[in-house]
């Protein structure tokens, strides 16, 4: 694979500029492509991370109402906010579609940058495979035929093809569709909340049984529903004025996601008697029926289906543009950087869609556990890259900078690292074994791709429209010497 030759191979991709230098926002070749503005970006973030309360039901099943509510109040401060802040700083420092791959490459070198790309793409595809599962889980109570067999398989294939085509048609279309889907998905829970007010009993929120907590399911459910803030970084090259738009969109996204979890949980756990065993994915539709009748149940089911389509679209966009960004940096074959006439990465979309179809036979809990473990490893690399860039290049230009020093940066990464360690420690042996095999595949792929490049079996190249990051690094280091 193409890499910059330098006496300092440690940081071959680092984008380091003085504070008085302009930060390029996107490749010139894509200037004619319409960029994503603020509102669509907020809802793309919403769907990258959440999509609404669909899937949080297992937190009540695992730990009861009080711990479920406390989890979605406290964990954003431990995990979501630090991850969103790091994404805002690093995403504006490197405003291109490689996203977190470029961050890690800049700090740790191309080998670990490639591993980051492999792990995050794979975890993203695994994550996307569960949305057809959730979609059908919500509909099967109204359409039992979708519960298993040929109708379920056919429904997954048709849904995947339709949403893949919409992704192909353009990111701006996906963004505005996400806005419409988001409003439609949130509205029934606002109605449900109003209807439930006379039946709310606050004492139901305080139910807790520490002797009967499934910590593995509880932490995995919280973690899955509160992560992926960094996924939007792989779309930074498609954002209108990313240096200002991205941090603001992440701020609004955190508020929207937190509210979309807490208020429905307050409604569901406070308005009906607790039966923990029933709180599994799809249970909010039963809550809706108990509170408002069949019409509200159907609305929630339609909202769940819509939400899962929105999450599928957003995740596929992120995954496919990540492959495009890696190809533009010479980390993948050049054909991954080819765009369709709509400006979308055609091959990246096809690869991501194929992975979804292959993995969609797994159960919801198996998908979440496998995705979480891979994601954990990728996040550790991001935290290291963030701190290392702060220490190695403290004066580099950062259009958005978290107002803390180096020590504060390290301390900010400690709580989410502890959470990651807990998720990994509680993983089953089966999930851990599968994840290790997937990691080893990445270790093999990088030297194999290098070999392919040396033998010229496939063409690799670095896009001329991207800034020469290594040259900027050398220029910056020369200013320090002077």
From TrEMBL:
The keyword Cell membrane applies. Keywords: Cell membrane, Membrane, Symport, Transmembrane, Transmembrane helix, Transport. The chain crosses the membrane at residues 36-56, 62-86, 98-115, 150-168, 174-195, 249-268, 346-364, 370-390, 402-425, 431-449. It comes from the Eukaryota. Its main location: membrane. Belongs to the amino acid-polyamine-organocation (APC) superfamily. Polyamine:cation symporter (PHS) (TC 2.A.3.12) family. This is Probable polyamine transporter At1g31830 isoform X3. It comes from Camelina sativa.
């Amino acid at each position: 694979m193409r890499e910059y030759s330098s006496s300092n191979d440690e940081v071959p991709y680092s984008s380091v500029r003085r504070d008085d230098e302009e930060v390029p926002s996107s490749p010139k070749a894509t200037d004619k492509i319409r960029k994503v503005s603020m509102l669509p970006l907020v809802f793309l973030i919403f769907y990258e991370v959440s999509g609404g309360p669909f899937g949080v039901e297992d937190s009540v099943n695992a730990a009861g109402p009080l711990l479920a509510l406390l989890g979605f109040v406290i964990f954003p401060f431990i995990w979501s906010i630090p991850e969103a802040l790091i994404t805002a700083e690093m995403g504006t420092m490197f405003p291109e579609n490689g996203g977190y791959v470029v961050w890690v490459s800049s700090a740790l070198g191309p080998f670990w940058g490639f591993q980051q790309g492999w792990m995050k793409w794979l975890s993203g595809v695994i994550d996307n495979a569960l949305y057809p599962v959730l979609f059908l889980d919500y509909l099967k109570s109204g359409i039992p035929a979708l519960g298993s067999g040929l109708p379920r398989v056919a429904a997954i294939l048709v849904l995947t093809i339709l949403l893949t085509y919409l992704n192909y048609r353009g990111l701006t279309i996906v963004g505005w569709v996400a806005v419409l889907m988001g409003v439609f998905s949130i509205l029934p829970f606002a109605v449900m909340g109003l209807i439930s007010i006379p039946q709310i009993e606050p004492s139901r929120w305080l139910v807790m049984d520490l002797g009967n907590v499934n910590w593995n399911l509880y932490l995995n459910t919280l973690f899955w529903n509160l992560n992926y803030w960094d996924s939007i970084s792989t779309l930074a090259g498609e954002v209108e004025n990313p240096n200002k738009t991205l941090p603001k969109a992440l701020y609004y996204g955190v508020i929207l996601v937190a509210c979309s979890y807490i208020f429905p949980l307050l409604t569901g756990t406070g308005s009906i008697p607790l039966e923990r065993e029933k709180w599994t994915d799809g249970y909010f539709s039963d809550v809706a029926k108990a509170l408002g009748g069949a019409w509200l149940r159907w609305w929630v089911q339609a909202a769940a289906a819509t939400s899962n389509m929105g999450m599928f679209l957003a995740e596929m966009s992120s995954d496919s543009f990540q492959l495009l960004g890696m190809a533009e940096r010479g980390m993948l074959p050049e054909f991954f950087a080819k765009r369709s006439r709509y400006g979308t990465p055609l091959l990246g979309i096809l690869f991501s869609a194929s992975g979804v179809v292959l993995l969609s036979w797994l159960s919801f809990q198996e998908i979440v556990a496998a995705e979480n473990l891979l994601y954990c490893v990728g996040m550790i690399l991001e935290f290291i890259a963030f701190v290392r860039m702060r220490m190695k290049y403290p004066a580099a230009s950062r259009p958005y900078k978290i107002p803390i020093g180096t020590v504060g940066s390290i301390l900010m990464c400690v709580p989410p690292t502890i959470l990651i360690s807990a998720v990994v420690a509680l993983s089953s042996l089966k999930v851990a074994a599968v994840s290790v095999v997937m990691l080893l595949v990445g270790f093999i792929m990088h030297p194999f791709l290098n070999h392919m490049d040396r033998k010229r079996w496939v063409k690799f190249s670095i896009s001329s429209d991207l800034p020469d990051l290594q040259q900027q690094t050398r220029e910056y280091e020369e200013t320090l010497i002077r």
